[in-house]
Design a protein that fits this description.
The protein is of the alpha/beta class and about 220 residues long. It contains six helices and eleven strands.
Amino acid sequence: MLSVNDLSIAYQANKVLNEFDLSLTTGDIFALTGDSGSGKSSALRFIAGLDEVQNGQVVLDGKQLSSNGVHNVAPELREIGMVFQDYALFPHMNVKKNIAFGIHHLSNSEQKVRVEELLLMIGLEGIEKKYPHQLSGGEQQRVALVRALAPSPKLLLLDEPFSSLDKNHQEQLVLQVRGILKKTNVTSILVTHDKHEATIFADKVGVIENKQLTIN
């Protein structure tokens, strides 16, 4: 499903990653860990196409997305969903409009059915008209997750989405999100600095040390 080959990332003279290789099959849940500044989030940005690739190749479902400094496919056309650390929900939109943001190509009735289906999946049915500020941190996180899942992406990238949550509820939510991803069979990559979180969330765990990726 995803193949990243010989990916090297540098910002001016600062080399962040060297010869990063990763291969995932459909439904794999992978966690990427490492110290702060090790290049975890940079790897996600390059896979998503938000930054240009200096060296290496990114292939998703047989389609070459990027290769050696060239974006063959624009970020918005890559069929990749993203969930950020701050969730990035639109504060002026209610839950329904947030989730439906990436499925405007569907009819209004189809959007309504899809939103209701996703809210039922995460146990938050009936909150369509609420706004982000009216939700708890855990609820915002789950809404951000299903907003990313709404267009049925081939790959989901999660950048430290649990780090700001209450520790008492964090593990429960990590396991719940894992269950949702397994149910939907979406190939996923989680970036986290928390090794325990990585272990309970992912099928495979990779560690970046000294600009190199090692998969346990």
